């Protein structure tokens, strides 16, 4: 089915979704939903994950009968009011745009947080999560504010959106969910292993490893210390022994 956007009042998106599901014949559309995203927010000396609307004022709907659906929507009294107020648009989402959004969204139509590792100098060495599919669309990072600026197109119009990220320091502490705008059940706490795709380290001090990404890619190292999501490794660099903390995913155990 093709994707379309119904533009409506900001803050009234879910009411429109409910109306569509109530009055539009089910055979005229496949799904109707609002797109949300996770964002790490700092509130009252505490970091919380909020789930917020990614495209305020936009409701997405899929259909193979856009003309018939559009005519039916115009007959609905509530939609007539939106149309008369000039807040109504029925826009086509191009196939490549729909494909990109499909790759970003989970089953609840939420863009979850991406785990981003850096080399300590704000150079990204590893990404896990929705941002993996963004590639050159990533315009930059605001590490302090925990988001990546991503340039997307929607209905042919370029939009810069902020997709949330978490860093190593975030997943090593307990994070709770705060404001949730989406009509979904969210867990009380954020589980890094579920969201970042990170696997248990299965490493212990003294293990020989190879760095598989980042500035030191290909370099042999030794595990000095392990943590929940990170390991401290020792490397020999320019004639000096040095240690550094890296994500588990950046090393691979050396096969004897």
| Total of domains | 2
CATH top level assignment of the largest domain = Alpha Beta
Q: Which strand-content bin applies to the residues?
A: 35-45%
Q: What oligomeric state is this?
A: single chain
Report the strand count: 18
Task: Give me the CATH architecture of the largest domain, please.
Answer: 2-Layer Sandwich
Order of helices and strands: EHEEEEHHEHEEEEEEHEHEEEEE
CATH superfamily descriptor of the largest domain = NusG, N-terminal domain
For the biggest sheet, the summary is: 5 strands, mixed
Secondary structure category: alpha+beta
Question: Strand order of the main beta sheet, please?
Answer: 9-8-12-11-10
**What do the pLDDT scores average to?**
85
Shape by Cα distribution? elongated
Per DSSP, the total helix count is: 6
What's the alpha carbon Rg, rounded to whole Å? Answer: 22 Å
As a percent range, the share of helical residues equals: 10-25%
**Runs with pLDDT <50, length 5+?**
194-201
CATH topology label of the largest domain: Alpha-Beta Plaits
Distance between the termini: 52 Å
């Amino acid at each position: 089915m093709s994707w379309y956007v119904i533009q409506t009042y900001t803050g009234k998106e879910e009411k429109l979704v409910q109306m569509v599901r109530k009055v539009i014949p089910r055979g005229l559309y496949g799904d109707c939903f609002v797109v949300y995203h996770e964002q790490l927010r700092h509130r009252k000396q505490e970091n919380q994950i909020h789930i917020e609307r990614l495209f305020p004022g936009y409701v997405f709907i899929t259909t193979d009968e856009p003309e018939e659906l559009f005519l039916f929507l115009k007959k609905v009294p509530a939609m007539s009011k939106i149309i008369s107020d000039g807040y109504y648009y029925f826009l086509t989402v191009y196939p490549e745009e729909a494909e990109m959004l499909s790759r970003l969204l989970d089953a609840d139509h939420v863009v979850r947080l991406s785990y981003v590792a850096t080399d300590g100098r704000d150079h990204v060495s590893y990404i896990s999560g929705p941002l993996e599919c963004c590639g050159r669309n990533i315009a930059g990072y605001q590490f302090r504010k925990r988001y990546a600026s991503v340039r997307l197109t929607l209905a042919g119009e370029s939009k810069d959106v902020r997709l949330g990220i978490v860093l190593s320091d975030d997943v090593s502490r307990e994070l709770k969910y705060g404001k949730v705008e989406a009509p979904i059940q969210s867990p009380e706490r954020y589980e890094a292993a579920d969201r970042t795709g990170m696997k248990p380290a299965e490493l212990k001090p003294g293990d020989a490893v190879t760095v598989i990404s980042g500035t030191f890619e290909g370099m042999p190292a030794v595990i000095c210390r392990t943590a929940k999501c990170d390991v401290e490794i020792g490397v020999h660099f320019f004639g000096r022994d040095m240690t550094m903390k890296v994500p588990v995913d950046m090393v691979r155990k050396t096969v004897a």
